[in-house]
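batch_manifest entry 22 of 60
target: Signal recognition particle 54 kDa protein
source organism: Haloarcula japonica
requested by: lab member K.T.
priority: normal
notes from requester: please return tokens only, no post-processing; we will run our own comparison against the previous entry in this batch. if the run fails, retry once and flag.
--- input ---
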Amino acid sequence: LGSSLRGTLDDLRGKSRLSEEDIEDIVKEIQRSLLQADVDVGLVQDLSDSIETRALEEEPPAGTTPRDWVLRIVYEELVDLVGESTELPLEEQTIMLAGLYGSGKTTTAAKMAWWFSTKGLRPAIIQTDTDRPGAYDQSKEMAERAEVDFYGDPDEDDPVKIARDGLEATENADVRIVDTAGRDGLNEELIEQIERIEQEVQPDRDLLVLDAAMGQSAKSQAADFEAAIGIDGVVITKLDGTAKGGGALAAVNETDSTIAFLGSGETVKDIERFEPSGFISRLLGMGDLKQLTERVERAMEETQEGDEEDWDPEDMLEGQFTLKDMRKQMQTMNNMGPLDQVMDMIPGLGGGLMDQLPDDAMDVTQERMRDFDVIMDSMTEEELENPRVVGQSRTRRICRGSGKPEERVRELLQQHKQMEQMLKQFQGMGDGDMERMMKQ
Ligand code: GDP
Ligand code: MG
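--- output ---
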């Protein structure tokens, strides 16, 4: 399946112009793959139209072959189709799971709890399923395996009361995940119950859990849950099977939401955050579409003046320097070379200026950079924007989440401070100062 798309793309190699027919061939192959992956026919048609229109109308940028350019368009449109990952700030929140019987809610609750615990947060599962015999035991056991807090009450048959008591009992948790009951089909009773639980819980996020094998019925199911409680994100489970999960895209489209997590197994660790490029590769059965399009990106970078999204060293010289800036800069370093070379690219800052700085200000080894990256994954938005708020207790939480020693976290903060100071020096420098420094 992927190989035929690959074959079609290979046939275009070396062509200096793509005909309408060439583009049709590619679009047909993509359609075939997507339909086989259960993607809704209407969505596939929209995608095809966009790709065709753009491929015929847009000129490849200088230095890019027509084949690479079409690939790029295909990739961009696919990213547009599958969407970005649901935003999930690493902070206190309550998440409620909804979905049909057997879709994987209880398993997902434990998986998500485990995932949040790896980020240094303290999760708790609240089990409100009073319908399914054994739901309590199943959930409790999974919570134990995930090593997270759990609340349930096997003797209570009012799910709303369990939810209320559960919120109270898990007050010390950072992230509360409320699991709900399902039914064989979506009926009045389920909808009414889940609405009542939702009103009691007032979750920050409602996630719809869908089995990857769920075909076209995902759409109407999603519409019903959307109407009842409002869906903020989708979790696709059982991607370890043969199903590719394309059906879920209709649900995403229907609820105007995004995909948060993917589940790929029965253990609590079989969870990953949704990420467009991996999912697209899976849908198309093709491994490296993103990598292929990176060539175009490089060519575009060379011909175009800085992209808005990209890190621009000049931005850094104005205003605040956050940990996010530092991270972007670290990533750029990986692509461009060390910071002193990057600084050389800034007009007016070139020359031997960097030689004036203490050597260790720039000394970030690869290994430390990797550690820093992992550590920053465990930090909250607030901490990344303003590292000054990170004190003892936050440092400990970040250590637990990242599995890195406290010393490393302090190194990261230290490094940030040094770079910030250095940049302040640059900011304070007029042209005259700069020349004087160069002469020295
Ligand atoms: P719920 O009824 O929505 O709470 O669904 P459960 O969490 O009880 O899951 C139903 C079945 O699907 C269980 O046997 C789970 O072990 C299984 N399951 C859930 N998620 C996955 C997954 O990602 N992969 C596989 N292979 N099985 C899963
Ligand atoms: Mg369940």
